[in-house]
């Protein structure tokens, strides 16, 4: 049988490296993944938050942050985020 | 790992043994332990920010803040001595001072 | 869990200590209430009396950049049940 990797195993392998988080809304985050739980609440470090508003794009720098897993849509491991394609 | 709310009473002993390692694992639980009593920024999904001293929180991410300032688009729009924030509105909790 | 300065160990303690007091409640849909808190439950369903509701009517059409303020409507209600899922924030009176 082909070896299969569980989705959360992939995220577990991302701990310690940077990750790109895309929310269900027009909001994205990048940062170093420190940990996560069963709800995929994530602890990130050196975070950049990207917002797309009617007034244009906005970024916010954040220190250690607990991101609520409830609104997460996609995770892109090892990516630097929307600025440059990793 | 366990993100369920704490039991309502402490009459019975806790069902689970303490985690084997007390070291920093970077999990959400550890983050929250480190950040209680510190200044935090709580952003809601609506984009409104609350900056204040984190008194405590529970497994639903319900939050009690002290000395709270409400920020909308970078402008202080309200101040509260204490504030209870219902967890379903929370987008993130960010440390506003070193943990 | 650590308690910082007060006797609050979980967020609901803040609400419990506000029973029979006048509280400020922020709701979804740009609504705000002030009133006496009589009861609450784990959903944050609330029973309040002597309530004044403030509705912020944001007119985004006239101001294309958004956050166009607005018109304020107020009304009073004697006794009110608030469904918990609409609650964003509850602020008790200042503790001493």
How would you describe this protein?
The complex is a heterotrimer of chains A (86), B (99) and C (96). Chain A is mostly beta strands and 86 residues long. Chain A is 7% helix and 51% strand. Chain A has a domain at 19-77: SH3 type barrels. Chain A has one helix and six strands; from the N terminus they run H-E-E-E-E-E-E. In chain A, strands 1, 2, 3, 4, 5 and 6 form a six-stranded antiparallel beta sheet that branches. By secondary structure, chain B is mainly beta. Chain B is globular, with a radius of gyration of 15 Å. Mean pLDDT of chain B is 84; it is low at 7-14 and 18-23. Chain C is mostly beta strands and 96 residues long. Chain C has one helix and five strands; from the N terminus they run αβββββ. Chain C has one helix at 11-16, and strands spanning 22-27, 31-40, 46-57, 71-82, 87-91. Chain C has a five-stranded antiparallel beta sheet. The chains are: A mainly beta (86), B mainly beta (99), C mainly beta (96). Chain B binds chain C through residues 6, 33, 36-37, 44, 46, 50, 53-58, 62-64, 66, 68, 72-73, 80-86, 88-89, and chain C through 1-6, 8-15, 24, 44, 67, 84-85, 87-95. Chain B: Residues 1-21 have a biased composition (Pro residues).
